[in-house]
Amino acid sequence: MSSFRGGIHPMKRQHGGKRPTRDLPIREFISDSVCIPLGARQGPPSVPCVKKGDAVKVGQPIALPGPGPLGLPVHASISGKVTDVVRMAYTGDTPVMCVLIENDFHNTWIDGIYGQREFSAITPESIIPAIRDAGICGMGGASFPTHVKLSIPEGARCDIIIINGTECETFLTADDRLMRETPMRIVNGLRLVMRALSVSRGVIAIEDNKPEALKSILAASANLPGIEVKKLRTSYPQGGEKQLILTVTGREVPSGKLPVAVNAVVLNVATSAAIADAVLQGKPLIERVTTIAGCVKTPANLLLRNGTIIGDAIGECGGYAKTPGKIALGGGMTGICAPNDQVPMTISTSGIVVYDEEEAQSLDEQPCIRCGKCVGACPSGLRPYILKHYCDEGDLIGAQSEHVLDCIVCGSCSYECPAQRWLTASFKNMKDKLALAAKGGNGK
Amino acid sequence: MSLRISTAPHIRKGVTTQKVMLHVLIALVPCVIAGIYRFGFGAALLLAISMCTAMLAELIFQKLAKKPVTTNDLSALLTGLIVGLNLPPQAPWWLAVVGSAFAIILVKQLFGGIGDNFMNPAMAARAVLLASWPVHMTKFIAPINGNFGADVISGATQLTAINSVNSPLTLSGADLFNHFTGNIPGAIGEVSKAMIVLGLVYLLLTRVITWHIPVTMVASAALMSLILGGDPLSNIVSGGLLFGAVYMATDYTTSPMTKKGQVIFGAGCGIFVCIIRKYGAYPEGVTYAILFMNCLTPLLDKFIRPRVYGAEKKQKEAKADA
Ligand code: SF4
Ligand code: SF4
């Protein structure tokens, strides 16, 4: 089997930090209120269509798609009363529009949800619009609108759908639990996408550190034509889209291109399950499984409604085990820091990891000792130690000549660096600058 | 609640520069013990002097230059120890002082400190000492083997003796064994090959280094000596080849970044050792071979680099489009 270059084993001795949660069944938690950000996905922010005081049901649209093909609707995740529609600070600098709903604890759904439709009753053309109407975006972290990903551009072709069940990130076990507990939804999602795009080959890729998930997915997909389950070597970032495509198909996505350039589409397992729910049951995307781990009293995998305040979810896990020093949404390698515990999680929040004060400290950056560990680790084949010089100096041209745009911001180089250098951070910064410059700004 | 905001990753491997240096120091402990056992407390004193000088030199230089003091990373201590281990046990104390100070100030700090020097400081120091005080640097004594009261008898290393008559280096069974265990005259650290191998195993297990440089260096030296008509095994166990291959050629800063580069680097070192041993004016080629390859390292790093994911196809495509 081909594989990507580089790669690391983060938190190897602690089994990737997955031990505390991997054997805990998914537990539903519905909080008193939610705060649903409308601009948390990629693409234009959705436009609110409810106002303060409105009563809403679960699954009812609270915001309409923003303009353009990337627009997505957003749905109420609990039933109750809209308490406010307001701009609020989220994880980024710019405040985003949020809809606040107070729970009436009736869990009243909109009509026409629970009927499971027959597979044969679904026409291929109806699938992608249904995915869009359900507000589905990538649940692996990138939160890119799924219907756009599935719209194969003119002239392009897709011959393989890959379902990403690698979950190579540290701490997270939400995908693992999903594969173990509801494998049929994942397999059905894959079948639907294959039908929509009339693709005959679907691969579900799972790292070999999840034997139970492998077994359960294998059983669920047995005798289904065209569906393969692939066991992959455990290595970070095996689940990186480009790395996964290379491992599974032997094809390399050309620099600066999308996976469809090599006729492949990759979807996360949770996304696949959401697709099955949307198409077969007409259920909009309003919840997800999130791993709550790190410095909390009882780590867990919680099924959370979109917009749950992370402090509430942490409270459900018994609260903090020690004074928290940092909270990051996502795993240890790529998570995004939350400014406080009053921000909401979203559909793309795969994990909430709490670090104690000691873990939150970072050692001072030291001079590079040219050990080459970063070069050995980089899955993109970059030379982080050189690239960092260009990025520190703000040299846009130099950074591009060292291929900063091919950096997938996986964090492997920083993880390995004995000099504790902030490699990934400076590359991300430079990529943001370049993206800004490309948009017409001056990059400063 | 005040939470820290930082960019990912939020976890680190926990290996620091200091820990890396500490591992190498630990890996050298067997060599140090063997050196002291073979050559007595004089050797211990030399090692202590060279380590202290190195630390002091770094401290004073950085204080005077108003730079942050980095002695905590232990790299100076390591350089000092390696300078000391490269000295003959009978060397005068000032040789250790000059060697360490030269290594730290001229080779390391003046080029910008840790990570910015292009030559291995300890190697460069040895080369300078060898060129400036050849008599002191090549006067070796026979081992006293723990008999600390014994008189020292000076003798030549096998290499010097053999090189002078210019015959191919071939050791017999008993000699080979003595070389392997270090029961021979030589520099403090490099005599006991068994201890060096022990250190190598430690460095490989702790993943401080990989096999690429030491193995290719030794293998290519063996091959080259065969080509030049010598005995590979004798060449491997004599002189500073193993010590250089394990502790000096593997220096991060002055060796290539990629595995491919490291293989070429190691092979180059091995080849040049044999060539210098056979044709050079100095009996021992390890120092110069490694320094020479150190100078080639920037070039190796410039041309040997990993292929960027997705890059080659882009070029092909561009060609196809044109
Ligand atoms: S963050 Fe970028 S440079 Fe660093 S290892 Fe990942 S892809 Fe390579
Ligand atoms: S891992 Fe850190 S110290 Fe090592 S070469 Fe890369 S940047 Fe330098």
Structure description:
- The complex is a heterodimer of chains A (444) and B (322).
- Chain A is built from 15 helices and 17 strands.
- By secondary structure, chain A is an alpha/beta fold.
- In chain A, helix 5 crosses helix 8 (269-281) and helix 12 crosses helix 15.
- The radius of gyration of chain A is 21 Å and the shape is globular.
- The termini of chain A are far apart.
- The mean pLDDT of chain A is 91.
- Chain B has 322 residues and is mostly helical.
- In chain B, 62% of the residues lie in helices and 1% in strands.
- Chain B contains 15 helices and two strands.
- The chains are: A alpha/beta (444), B mainly alpha (322).
- Chains A and B meet through strand 15, strand 16, helix 14 and helix 15 of A and helix 1 and helix 15 of B.
- The structure holds iron/sulfur cluster (2 copies).
- One iron/sulfur cluster is lined by residues 377-380, 382, 384, 407-413, 423-424, 427 of chain A.
Topology of helices and strands:
The complex is a heterodimer of chains A (444) and B (322).
Chain A: H1 19-22, E1 27-29, E2 33-37, E3 47-48, E4 55-56, E5 61-64, E6 74-75, E7 80-88, E8 96-103, H2 124-133, H3 146-149, E9 160-165, H4 174-181, H5 183-196, E10 202-207, H6 211-221, E11 227-232, H7 241-249, E12 264-268, H8 269-281, E13 287-294, E14 300-305, H9 310-316, E15 324-329, E16 336-337, E17 351-356, H10 357-360, H11 373-377, H12 384-392, H13 396-401, H14 412-416, H15 423-438
Parallel strand pairs in A: 1-14, 9-10, 9-12, 10-11, 13-17
Antiparallel strand pairs in A: 2-8, 3-5, 4-7, 5-6, 7-8, 13-14, 15-16, 15-17
Helix pairs in contact in A: 2-5, 4-6, 5-6, 5-8, 12-15
Chain B: H1 17-39, H2 41-64, H3 75-85, H4 93-108, H5 121-132, H6 134-138, E1 140-141, E2 154-155, H7 158-165, H8 173-181, H9 193-205, H10 212-227, H11 232-237, H12 241-248, H13 259-279, H14 286-303, H15 311-321
Helix pairs in contact in B: 1-2, 1-3, 1-9, 2-3, 2-4, 3-4, 3-5, 4-5, 5-14, 9-12, 10-12, 10-13, 13-14
The complex binds iron/sulfur cluster (2 copies).
